[in-house]
Structure formats: structure tokens, C-alpha cells
Amino acid sequence: MVTVGSHSRPRLVRSLGERIAAVGQMPVLGAVGTGAEPLPRSNSARRVQALDGSLQLAPEVAEAARTAGGPVLLVDDFAETGWTLAMAARLLRSAGGGEVPPLVLALQG
């Protein structure tokens, strides 16, 4: 299980992910960092441009995803466009991880 760093609800996302991992008997691999500042609301093209390079996957999280031996659950607090989830999943897959199903608390849009 990997969480997406949240600017508005970091404790909620982290604790929810940890509880899901405990119940599902899956390891907590870490988090995908989203940079220092929240991204501005914008259209999809600008959102992807802003996300490119702002998402960070620590080497130890990349290694954990690569050696997880199965799907890596990606937990986030909300999704507006889905691009953060898609690009975070891409990072995990590029690191050698398996499938990356998302779990989102709320959809906004």
C-alpha cells in the first residue's frame, strides 16, 4: 500500500492507508510525494504539465514497490481529474511494481 501525499489531509490519508494495510494484511510501502505546494486547478493538459516532475518516489519506496510481489494499493483523499493517481501509478509501475489499483475517499469535479 502506498499513499499519495496530501496537502489538506495528510494524517487522514496516512492513517487510513495504514489501517487498510493492517486489515488487508499488506505491507505499508511508503508515500508518493507531491511537492511543496498544492497544484493549481486547471485543465488536464496544464495539470499533467504541473505534475510532471513534481511527484516524487523515494528510492526505498520504489524498491519496495518493485519487490512487493503483487498489486500496490494507491490511497488518496480525493481525485478531481485523476491525473495525480495516473501519474503516481506510472511512477510505481516504472519502478517495477505490479498493478496499481487506486482507492480514493472522494471524487471532486
What does this structure look like?
The protein is an alpha/beta fold. Helices cover 39% and strands 19% of the residues. It has four helices and five strands. The protein has helices at 10-23, 44-51, 59-66, 83-94, and strands at residues 2-4, 30-33, 56-57, 74-79, 102-107. A five-stranded mixed sheet has the order 3-2-1-4-5, with helices on both faces. The longest helix has 14 residues, at 10-23. 22% of the residues are buried.
- Principal-axes geometry comes out as globular
How much helicity do the residues have? 25-40%
Give the strand order, joined by hyphens, for the main sheet: 3-2-1-4-5
Proportion of β residues?
15-25%
Distance between the termini: 26 Å
Mean pLDDT reading: 88
Succession of helices and strands: EHEHEHEHE
Radius of gyration: 13 Å
User: How many helical stretches?
Assistant: 4
Low-confidence stretches: none
Going by helix content, strand content and strand pairing, the class is alpha/beta
Number of DSSP E strands: 5
Largest sheet: 5 strands, mixed
Brief overview, please?
The protein has helices at residues 10-23, 44-51, 59-66, 83-94, and strands at 2-4, 30-33, 56-57, 74-79, 102-107. With 109 residues, the chain is an alpha/beta fold.
SSE order and pairing:
Layout: E1 2-4, H1 10-23, E2 30-33, H2 44-51, E3 56-57, H3 59-66, E4 74-79, H4 83-94, E5 102-107
Parallel strand pairs: 1-2, 1-4, 4-5
Antiparallel strand pairs: 2-3
